[in-house]
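Lecture 7 notes: from sequence to structure.

We start with a single chain of 228 residues. Read the sequence below before looking at the structure.
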Amino acid sequence: MSIAVHVLAIGTAIVVAHSEVEFPNHSPRMNATYLLASPPPPPPPPPPPATAKVVPQTIVPRVVTAPTVIPDAIPVVASSEPIVDPGVQGGVEGGIIGGIVGGKIDPAIPPPPPPPPPPPPPPPQPADGRVHIERDKPLPMFPLSQTYPAYPEDQRVARHEDSVLVRYIIGKDGRVKMVEILAHAQYKKFDDAAMKAIRFWRFRPMIKDGQPVEVVHELTVNFKLDAE
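Now the structure, written as tokens:
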């Protein structure tokens, strides 16, 4: 038994002797391949800015030469711009030349005439209930039939001219109700022609305060011939 154990121990020692493992003392090396090449050169610097070329200026003095010949007549050069009178300071546009600032009236200039007086008021209407129209003024009524008096033939042949002043009254119905002569003509036929025509005049009635009223009118009837 002891012999077998010794034999086994000796065999184990032989095996251990032939199977010893050695560990390296340093780390494994790694091999790498490098390309040795020089880097590209840097770009050249930018050129310096161009310097402006200064051209020296030569100042030539202006020489004014007086004329040697004086002309007899000096021409007048007309200005292209109109001459505007600035006027008087403090004046009013449209004022009179020679006026005085402040509005004083020059004794040499007569004062303006006074304004005309206002027209007189119309005469009061008579208290007869009628409307009285001023002499020879147009009637404020619409005419329905108003034929002017005919010229008497014998007076036309004789080249007579005349006038008649009449007063007529227009009724509430618009018809002429009365005609009278205030100033007769020189020839009676003119009176008759005026009376005959005016009697047949008709108008639309005049309305006052919603009611028809009578109208009184005076009219000068002129008989005139055309110039030949």
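Helices lie at 2-18, 153-157, 188-198. Keep this in mind for problem set 3.
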